[in-house]
Amino acid sequence: MILLAIDTALENASVGLVAGDRRWTRVATIGRGHAEILMDAIAGLLAEAEIAPSALERIAVTVGPGSFTGLRVGIAAARGIALVNRIPVVGVPTLMIHAAHALALMEMPRPVLALLPARADELYGQAFDANGAPLSPPAAGTSADFAAEAAAGNFVVAGAGAAVLGEGFAPVHRDSAPSIDMLLDLGARLDPALFPPKPLYVKPPDAAPQGGARIARR
CA-to-CA distance for 75 and 94, rounded, in angstroms? Predict the structure, then answer.
């Protein structure tokens, strides 16, 4: 399978490509401005691999939780390329990628609670079993909420949000942006019918249309 992966969920603008046993990745930590560099990064990666866009067979894209604008940029790009090439898109949740990354780092896999910072003093979190399958839907809560969940379920913790749980919780990793290599792996395995490329915000985004800019209907 020739698969293109796109991540613009958080501070990184990352693209990856796998073709058989060959793999290419590009990661840029930019914070903002994903739209300005994403398409050039994709074009550069395809040129480096000497693979035509028409040869792509599947696209994987991060769907959140993450930045409202970043998610829209990545998902729109993935959908557009897929539409032109008539290929499927897999939407991969950010927390699932963090859990998969944690499991890959462990000698003996254990259930994982993946955590990311949210707005204010909250975190986004989701529990996964030792095989990386979700045990619960993604949710928002306080660090105390998730510390209690991790202790009660004997979970290891991972992700940038895990760093605020306090003593007694040593994160397997403290990453914020998801691993592009894990996105490639999950994108090849997951069923596009079960993981569509739709934004996963967990909580409603801060951004909203300006009421004063709307045109009154007659």
Answer: 13
